[in-house]
Amino acid sequence: MAAKALRGAKMQPSDHQWWPRVTAGLKFVGWETLIGFLICLLAGWNEPQLGQEGWRDFMLAGVVVVTVRLSSQRFYWLMQSSPTTNVLWQLPVAGRDIVRWARGVYFGGLWKLLPRMLVTSWAWLGFPLPALAWPQIVWNGLLLWLVMIACVMHDSPFSTLGRLIAKAWTGALIVWGSLLLYAWWWEKSHASGQPIAEWVVALCSTLSWLLPARWAMHAAESGTELALTLLTLLSGAVLWSVFPLRAAITYDLVFPEDGGGPPDTTDGESRAPEDDTDDEPGVVLPETAASTTVDVLAAIQQARADEQPAHNRGWIEKLALRLMNDRDRKLAAIVAGGVAGWTSLWWKAIPILTLLLLASFLIMTFSPPWVRETAEMWVVVLPLSAVALLAFPLSNGIPYATFSWPLGHGSMPFFAGLPLRIHDLMRLSRRITLARMTGLVVLVLPVIAAQALILDRARGIPVLCGIALSLSVFWILIRPLFIYYRLQQMSSPAHGFRFGHFMTWWLIFALGLGIVISGMLCVAFVFFSPLWLLIAAGCSQGIYALFHARARSRKVDWVVSPLPPS
Amino acid sequence: MHIELSDLSKRFGHTIALDQVSLNVPPSSIISVIGENGAGKSTLLALLGGILAPDEGLIRFDGQTFSREVLELRRRLLFTPDTPLMFMDRTVASNIATLADLYDARVENHEAELVSLLEETGIAALMDRSAGSLSRGQLWKAFMACVCVIQPELWLVDEPFASGMDAIGMGVFRRLVRRMTEAGATVIYTTQMVDLAADFSDHVCVLRHGRVALWETGERVRELIAAGPEGQENVLRGLR
User: Fold this and answer.
1) B50: which chain A residues are within 8 Å (Cβ-Cβ)?
2) Which residues of chain B have pLDDT under 70?
3) B116 touches chain A (CB under 8 A)
């Protein structure tokens, strides 16, 4: 059984084996279909102007690099953080054997990436009829797949060259992502069929040389690219074969083969004390005992005062607190982590936005027409991205409530062990979101107005500001949905029906339908927005209310993985 | 607080963790829950603390059905898993203040007892240390200071005797629990140590395969242990 475990096999057969496999299979097919569809769109399946060679080379090579990154994350997770390796590292097992085990499990799952490589290959060849071109599609797809596997080792933190390669690919991926936005903007603002700018194609062509997948696809045409491809494959194979030895050297220092185990970090006496003056911090010397009463209470009062530093609280934090009652303010100080720093980020956005808008104005006023045409998209995207990064309330704002706490062999959300109701959390999060969204609106409306003036579209300012306000209100109204999603991640249904899965799919359907309808009504969007907001609020509140009702009816276990009986 | 468990059952998939457990826990008492590995001790505690929801049966506190979303009931109990719930990036002093605020407890009301506990355990000198930098035993000692301030009506403690506390800490724990029960609180704790449970509880509940195999006073369990060389094993098997 242990030998089976080392090969990655399950040690215990589970009941009802076929149903989980069917659902996993359906999920896999669904995801790969979606990914394949997106790959085809990237390669210009429905937009011929995106089918130019340089563009296609870079976009599809970027797909392979993204796959490499995600795949290597899985490999390093298997090696370092998976539940099995967490146990194995504590046992008297050589590090290289554990790494070999992780490598074996990783290789066993690589077949799942083959379908998307085949689709990438098909897209790269220009969407030929599969019935006629299948040998070339399959051959290229296999080559891409092997190059992808080899690149996982090249994109490695274990060597200087690996780190350089990782940085280069990260830079290329940033440009890749930006060009996706560019393509979307180009399609919206230009007539159908108009080819993208030549300099973009040239840039793509140049950058694609950084990515091994491009060499693989052109290996048949060029000796240089053939040589580079072979070098990639050969070096990847060598690196994979020696990886257990190289990586294990690091781990074996901490986890020696004789089973010494990691140092005991639970024993305070074995840790370097912060204060070196006390050899035994647990002993109170007689001469200090007299002042202990005053010190202890003073320390507690000081700690309480430190949690609410009024001078550090910015206007957004003050607004959030003003929206709360006394109990909520007390809870916010506990679960929102004290001083949040929202206002300081808001203040940082102002000079950045000022510079971006000033640069936009200068470019749009004084530069030649071909520069203005290209810069138009960035005039819109960059300032709004800055606002989003610095002021957008993406999180629920209550980090301390929902982080995991160990409970037996599983974990529970921290708040579950405290007298905190889920309705308390929802209320806090909504008020925090309202305050933060106010800060965002104060920034984004002037930015939109300035952008419209710079782009000579002043007549659109009321509509654009209306849409921004509408979206801001939408984000506040759907906060219960995010709270529900976070809570259902940290809980399990007490018995029977998988409420979370059902609601997640219903949610995807409802929101998808809402987005489609909104898209179809985009011209009259602003005028229909109150109805849209009402529907969104109803859906969001309804899903949360259902979950809340289940929790109140004691149908929810607040454990992430159910406890075995003990 | 009067605690009543009626036909409490809990399953995890096909595994029955608790099966039709019914108990009437008298108020102001120390209850130890013992049993073999996998008997359902921690599951019972998690149900009482509202972490898990029963598949069948009811938990009533003072006649009212318990749900963790009912704040008035939830605030009267304190659930302590095998790692005490504390804010690891805050100091010991901040944790005491925070947990006191959460339970609407006033530190000043328990000043003398708190100071004595902190001095006795040595945590007084660690008030400015973050909870995350403490050892496991020190964390438990710091948490006892929080309990001293909160003074819950029901304290549910999972494996306090496996907490890593030294003899001083364990002595402080026992005295704290005794004082709490004398003031009217109920303390329910789990342990694997039969003799310890018998010495330090008013009633012992033995769980076996998810059912109550034995419900006796601590004194009676001590007699059963002393009855023969396999006394402790017999207690775990529910044999009288």
Assistant:
1) 416, 558
2) none
3) no
